[in-house]
Design goal:
Elements lengths: L3 E5 L3 H8 L9 E7 L2 E7 L1 H5 L8 H7 L4 E4 L2 H14 L7 E4 L3 E5 L10 H14 L5 E5 L2 H10 L5 E2 L5 H5 L11 H9 L5 H5 L3 H8 L1 H11 L16 E10 L2 H21 L2 E12 L3 E13 L2 H14 L6 E13 L9 H20 L5 E5 L9 E5 L19 E8 L1 E4 L6 E4 L2 E14 L12 E8 L4 E6 L8 E6 L2
Parallel strand pairs: 2-4, 7-8
Antiparallel strand pairs: 1-6, 1-7, 2-3, 5-6, 9-12, 10-11, 10-12, 13-14, 15-21, 16-17, 17-18, 18-19, 19-20, 20-21
Length: about 500
Amino acid sequence: MVRILSIWLPQLPLDRWVRQQDPRLEGPFAITKDIKNAHRLTHVNAPGRRAGLGPGLSIPDARAICPDLLTEPSDEMREASLLRALWRWADVLSPRVALDAPDGLLLDIAGCAHLFGGEKEMATHAKERLFDMQITARLGIADTKGGAWALARYGKGNPAIAEIGATMDALRTLPIAALGLDDKTISDLSRTGLTTIRQLMDIRSGELARRFGLDLTKALSTASGHAPDPVTPRAANPVYAARMSLPDPIGYLSDIEGVIGRLASSVCGRLQTDQKGARRFELTVRCVDTGNHVLRVGFAKPCFEEGPILQQFARPLDALKIEFGADWFRLRAAHIEPVRSKQMELTEQTDTENELSRIVSTLGNRIGFDHVRHFAGHESHLPESEFFQLETMDRRDAPSWTQTPRQRPLRLFNGPERLHLIEAGRPPRRFQWRRASFHLQTANGPERLTPEWWASSDGRTRDYWRVQTEEGPRFWLLNYPGQAEPDWYIAGRFA
């Protein structure tokens, strides 16, 4: 016997602001989203509904009805994070829990309901617990996942429960939208006069499939239990975090570092046990006068040791102003990655890699990891295309370089710089660059390169020359052959 509990969270984006006790919720308030090239309301609070607002209205139309309306755009990332938190909480009800994104959960409660005194008592307990967390929920129980999903959203009562073996009897009076069909199929069915599931059950499945497609018959089969559609649970990702509440606030930097050291010891201990490392750590400090302050640090490679964490948090903590003390701390590891055990090697290369990682971590936390970049090789014969820049945090392995057989300057300019000819020649015998004059001593070239026709917008052929000047500097000169008045440029400079 299979029994499925569906938990629908119809106001999840709005409940996120309710849980934060946002003062704007005292008046008309709505969540908006870009739908069909317009910002439209998706969730409206009770004062907004009393003012005549509802989902689907565009913001200009809604403000014409209720000028006092306040809105907030949907934040899908934070809403998904709240749903995943509820997913982990649902383990208290059943060990088999699956996400039903973006606003629901599915639980296999076979063999679990008697622990709460029955299915109705279990559903009522779940509803009350969610209410205590300021989460609006509707619940449905049936023999199938599709049936439970339909009852939670369209059934009468909360919870709406179908008797064992009578799921289709409970679904007969529900609208066809309870099958989870797309808008086009629902519109096509409505135009033919089919509005309830009872009417669909009276028609042979072959005729429905021929007229409306296989998705309709598949939805009916899974809802009725004729086709398997089990709940597929997946274990929630472990959270590597630790927190500490203090009876009295502390304000000395040494005391705060001691608290962070204890939190880091707890988090890193679990990371090492699971052979994991974290690329980022987030520290929340709650000051008694200014509330929560969130400090973040990152690492160039997965970290699972206390020392580097304390070292990187030293600068953010020094900039944090704590006048009346802090009494609550939480350290969380993010961007978790597996760490492979390696044999200890006391080599110069290992020391260099560790030192480079520390330098990248320190620079990234000070100026931003998006500003710390390195060069990587690229297959191309053009000098400006033989490499590209990559954020160091995106690098997983050391970049591999293939030594080019062509001599290239140590410094390649971002764009060739024009020369001022003093004495013509090929290459120029005397020229001026950056207010300095140079005399040609020796020259090697030309090295002729033709642009890549499939990628380059500049189709001119180039000639490059390696020149040694009497003044000492060695340049890489460039010109475009075939022009009536040849111009010369400096493309790079050798060591």
